[in-house]
Structures are given as C-alpha cells and as structure tokens.
Design goal:
This protein is of the alpha/beta class. It has 15 helices and 8 strands. The strands form 2 sheets. It has a 5-stranded parallel sheet with strand order 3-6-7-1-8, sandwiched between helices. A 3-stranded mixed sheet has the order 4-2-5. The two termini are 23 Å apart.
Amino acid sequence: TEDDIYCRCLSRTLCHTATPVTVGLFAPCCHRLDSLLAKVTGFMREEMARREEAELLRGRQKPRSPEGWGLLLALWYLAFYKPVITEGHLRRKNIEFVFIRFSAWQYAGCDKLWAGLVTALCDSIRRHFGALPLSVYHVVGTRPRYASGFSQKEWVLKTGACLKLWGLLFVLAAGLSILLVALLVPGIKDHHALKVLGGAATSLSGSGLALGAFSVLKNLLVSEKRKIERLTDSHRFASQLGFMSKVRGEVEALIGYLAFMEIFERRRLRVVLEITGLDTCYAEKVAGVLDAINTLLSDSDAPFIFLLAVDPSVIVPCLEQTGCMKGLADNGYLYLNRTVTLPFSIPEMGARSRLRCLEAAVQTREDLMYRIITANVERR
C-alpha cells in the first residue's frame, strides 16, 4: 500500500540518521498514527535482523546479551574494566532498536507531563537491560572514553579499583587471621591488643565492602523512575531548587550506561521513543514535553530517536495558546520547527490503504489475532 511505502522510507532513514534526532511524523488523522507507527516499527525490526545476519557473515565477533552467563560477564566488566570506543566499534553496522511507546494521555493528569516522559524512558531502559547491571553501573561504572589512535582494545583494566578491592580483601583476611589467633591460640588469649587490632582491621575492611554492596542494593530497590517521582513530590519542587540538575544527572547516567552496553553487546544501540497522544493534552503540557526533548534529552552523545506522532493542525493551535511563543511572532509552526529535526509528512490515505483498512474493519476478532500470530512467525 501507499502507507507501506512511506513507512519503509522513514524506517530506512531512521536506520542511517545521526542521533539524537526528533522526527515529526505528521499525519492528518490521529487514529491513523498507531497503524503507521506499527508499520515503521516492523520495518525497523526487519532491518535490524538483516544487519545482524550480514555482520555475522562478515566474520565479526558474535554479539552478546546481558542474560545468563552474559549477565555475570557484564557485571565483571562493570566492576573492573573501563570501556573504550574504538574505530572498530564505530564501523559496526549491526544495530539494536529499543522501542518505547509513550502515550501522553496516560500522564495527562499529572502536573508535569515532561516528568512522565523522563520516567517512562528510565523505566523502560531498566526493564530492557535488567535492574542489576544498571544498579552496579550507578555505583562503580564509568562512561566510555575514545581510543587514542587506531587501537582496537575495547577494555582497559581499572587499576585503582582492583588495588582498592585487593587491599580491602587483604586487610580483611589479615584482620580475621589476627582475631582468630588472638581468640584460639593458647598463651595469646590474654593479649587484648591483638584482639583490638584484629577487630578494627576486620570491621574497617568489612564496612568498606558492605558500603559498596549497600549502594548497589539501594539502586536496585529504588529505580530512577522512583527517584524522579520522589523529587516531584518534594516541597522543593515548587521552587525548582536543584530539581532540574538532578533529573539531568539521572538522564546523563542513563546515556553513559547505554554507551557502555553498546560496547559490551558489540552492536549499536538506538532508543526509539514513540510519543503519541499529545493531541489530547493541555497546551502548557504539550510545550513542556517539547522543551524536555530540547533540553533534558538533547545530549550530543544520546542515542535517542524521538518519533513525534502528531497531527500538526491540532498541535499548532495548542502551542499558540501558551507563553512559549514570545519572540516567535505567535507562530506555532516556527516553534514546532525548532523542535523537529526531520519533518516527515504523510499525505491522506490512498486507495490501496483504504481497501486494506476496510478489509481489517470487517474481519472478526479471531482473524485479527491470527494475523498477529502469522506476523510474529514471519518476524522470526
């Protein structure tokens, strides 16, 4: 159909475009946007599988995943190695898309819609890669650095971290040995100085190890989504005292973690955030979401692709009612242009697309479910 052609073109464009990028998927009917997004997602998954196969045929290293034994390996690298972005990594063609659907109407009741956007992003990344690796990254992880020259070494040992760990383990073993000798060996039991020395060494080294484990456990139990929700519930939120900087810090930590996972998984990562339902929200909240895309989520290294699926004839009048139009001559299209990097307009539905929609409309529920099952089989 005509829609298939448009969506195929957009999906190929998104596979090659630099990030971060905000794509305006403009269609005249808001009910049509869901089907268009489903087509774009399907075509991008096909391209992802094709690139994976082509990369394996080239004889490149097999990609990894933080699951099973891969999880233990990821934790090992997080604790003891620094990732390095090399020329070989930049030449990798295989890519993994992480699709996140953000329906704005689900968060329309909150005071700050853009906070819902950030929490949805953090929560989806946490669920996709697992809570444990992200928690360990918050405590001991390091952001990747660029290689000097054409070196292909992607991992560098953390000398300082290894020395600290071995030092704590040595002091702990020495303290336990002294304590056991002072308690069990006859003739030395009366020496209280040895007991004090062994107890002090054991408690100091053990507390250092326990503090690190406690930090990991704390980040494991308290997610980034929960942290931002606590900030919004705080009394300081009204005055914005340090609030935006903390949210920005959480987003930067998330971007660093994604860069780490790129090197670990041996593939490029792209987070596709599909934003829908802005047409049903209040004007100020729509402007807040666009501002969040422009500021909080616009890091130059961020692997984010924002698919802004809206009907411009509805969004533009909303923007023109807000106070963000100052200096733009009250022109909503200028403000939308400032946010959208790549506008992609889809015209009205053609004859083939209308027939396909009519065919789907007259099908029974079982037929539609069978169609989904066959599509999943073809995807595999």
